[in-house]
Amino acid sequence: MAASAHSTIGLSPRDEKDSCTPLPRDADLEKAPVEYSTPTEKTGPEVSQEPSDPLLVCASPSMSETLLIRLIQVTWNGAEDPANPYNWPAWRKWTVTLLTSCGGLVTLMTGTMMAPALGQISRDLHTTDSTTQMTLSIYVLSFAFGPMVLAPMTEVFGRKPVWLVSGCFYILWNTVCGFSHSNGLMIASRFFAGLGASAEFAV
User: Fold this and answer.
1) How far apart are the C-alpha atoms of 191 and 145, rounded to whole Å?
2) Other Cβ atoms within 10 Å of 113 Cβ, number
3) How far apart are CA 104 and CA 158, in angstroms?
4) How far apart are CA 13 and CA 65, in angstroms?
5) What does the alpha-carbon distance between residue 191 and residue 88 come to, in Å, rounded to a whole number?
6) How far is CA 138 from CA 26, 122, 150, 193, 195, in A?
7) Which of 64, 65, 77, 125 has the most crowded CB, counting CB atoms within 10 A?
8) Is residue 131 a contact partner of residue 183, using CB atoms and an 8 Å limit?
9) How far is residue 28 from each of residues 34, 41, 49, 68, measured CA to CA in Å?
């Protein structure tokens, strides 16, 4: 797949009468001249977006800001690109679907499956029932914080790496829960396990 994005340099003018002038492909950004043109009431802003000139300089005579926009097309490498999920074989589509579905099912079950054992956990850790309830609710609470970090990370590293690392993080802290001998460690382990599990909903 062709990697691409829209990038801007400088401040974006808010004046609706700003105009854009195409520059040559090999233009130097620092030495690029800025040409001003005042749009008329009949034609509106003059915007030129030709495929051969992907660099535009937009400026307004009434403002000092200059906006440099590099236009890059986001597309697949042809209709038969194997990276396009539409072109995946059926077995791969079903494998990805089942893995992500089972991952979401397991992480949701983890939030409540320990509820019948809260009494036993309270006796083993020598805590009150109200304190032990924190081990159950802290897991769901962490769902509110995980997506705020994991969702932006997918834009930088991609969804697959974040999903895999978060799954391993979730398994690690769930394992720690099984070896906990104090209520504080149990609560902390459940919180971090919830952070890893929240990737199923954020990614």
Assistant:
1) 10
2) 11
3) 19
4) 6
5) 37
6) 56, 16, 18, 10, 10
7) 125
8) yes
9) 12, 33, 18, 12
